[in-house]
Amino acid sequence: MKPAILLATGPWNPKLWEGPLAAADPDRPVFTYPDVPDRAAVRYALLWKSPADALARLPNLAAIFSLGAGVDHVVGLDLPPVPIVRIVDPDLTMRMTEHVVLHVLYHHRKIPQYQEQQKKHIWRELRQPAANAVRVGIMGLGELGRDAADVLVRLGFQVSGWSRTAKAVPGVACFAGADGLAPFLARTDILVVLLPLTPGTRGILDRRVFEGLARDGALPGPVVINAGRGGLQNEADLLAALDDGTLAGASLDVFVNEPLAKESRFWDHPRVMLTPHAAASSEASALAPGILAQIEAFERGEPLRNLVDRERAY
User: Fold this and answer.
1) Which residue in 34, 68, 278, 286 has its CB near the most CB atoms, within 10 A?
2) How many Cα atoms are found within 13 Å in the side-chain-facing hemisphere of 134?
3) CA-to-CA distance for 10 and 252, rounded, in angstroms?
4) Tens-place pLDDT, residues 117-131
5) Looking at the annotation, which residues are catalytic?
6) Using one digit for the tens of pLDDT, what is the confidence trace for 262-302?
7) C-alpha to C-alpha distances, 53 to 70, 78, 240, nearest whole angstrom
8) What structural domains and CATH numbers belong to the chain?
């Protein structure tokens, strides 16, 4: 019998994963937390916002796979010293790129203003700048950030990127580190945030960042699109910046506390477009074959790919 997989999906329905995993490898046992009849048989754990004790008493665990794009839900657990694998998959990447491009165009093509005009029955064309007059800055140049940047460059936008360490991306003006943040912000009209949540990035979207964005662009004012993690944003600073016009708008897919409280001001803020952490949902039927392929390659002696650096937390 092949080594078993433990599936611990937290708030997700595990049945959405059981079928695709069985289809990809019918001979591989899959146990669903907390029903684990043979803990010694488990060699791999597939996790998403799992209970803290999900990995307890698994003596032969060899690798952990995060079922989402982020890994902050995993690195916060008391983990055994085994490799942690991030999910990098074309389906997940394209879903995020679709979301980013949609919201860049939403603000660029003045959809919020047209929606307001529609409510008031106003028929008036608004001046539309060309894409090459608009500067999009992407915070986070990992797999997701690079793919979104590539599409935005092809659409004609001026694209820049910022990351903790220096990166080179074709067609993208790249900035890095603390010294690179201010010049990056100063040339950004639409800020796209795809950073991982780490101790160094928690709360990075604060008043200082919002005030550092460009004021001389083709848009009425700077815009923030956060599709990374809610913990990246200082929500008091974000609301204040939206209230006083420091930010002209925001598209927010993530929040510090989810689900978002019904009394939150974000729901009804006139400058906010809100989605319920839906930018890049993990589709089990698309991701399961890649996970099983990694496991099979690992069992043949090949190294695991897309490993998490525990010290950097991503």
Assistant:
1) 68
2) 24
3) 23
4) 999 999 999 999 999
5) 229, 277
6) 999 999 999 999 999 999 988 899 999 999 999 999 999 99
7) 20, 8, 39
8) 4-87+282-299 (3.40.50.720), 93-274 (3.40.50.720)
